[in-house]
Automatic annotation (TrEMBL):
UniProt cross-references to InterPro entries, sorted A to Z: Allophycocyanin_b, Globin-like_sf, Phycobilisome_asu/bsu, Phycobilisome_asu/bsu_sf
Residue ranges of coiled coil: none
Membrane topology: Peripheral membrane protein
Protein's recorded name: Allophycocyanin subunit beta
Main location: membrane
UniProt family annotation: Belongs to the phycobiliprotein family.
SUPFAM superfamilies: Globin-like
Amino acid sequence: MQDAITTLIKNYDSTGRYLDGVAIDRLKSYFETGTARVQAAALINGQAAAVVKEAGSTLFSDQPELIRPGGSAYTTRRYAACLRDMDYYLRYATYSWVAGDTDVLDERVLAGLRETYNSLNVAIGPTVIGIGILKEIVKAKVAEAGIETSFIDEPFDHMIRELGEKDI
């Protein structure tokens, strides 16, 4: 797993360049938000079950066809799998905050996810909507705790962009 520092250095090293003002500013920004990143991760870790439950309730209230016969979350097993996956996305988003990099999402979450969901006939659109709901809940909780939120969107937006489907 890469972090903001190793990714930056790797990119400069591969082109044979010294760190310039842009690189130094990126490093400075990463270090200035370091405490907030860890605080946000700790806060959400302590409330993860409640966040996932709230996100699931919101998703299924907004998209009730998902829990009706034929829906992606119909049956207890599929419903539980949906909540498990939301927890998975949330956990890896917190890893991404702390690392200051989205590589962990590409390596551990997104690689092969679309193919897996398609092979299991799981609709990707609701997954994207659910990730967006998670983002809004998390952002509100972190802001409510008085923690900086400038880095919160990045991992969620990255997952949404990479999955990139809104159809239900």
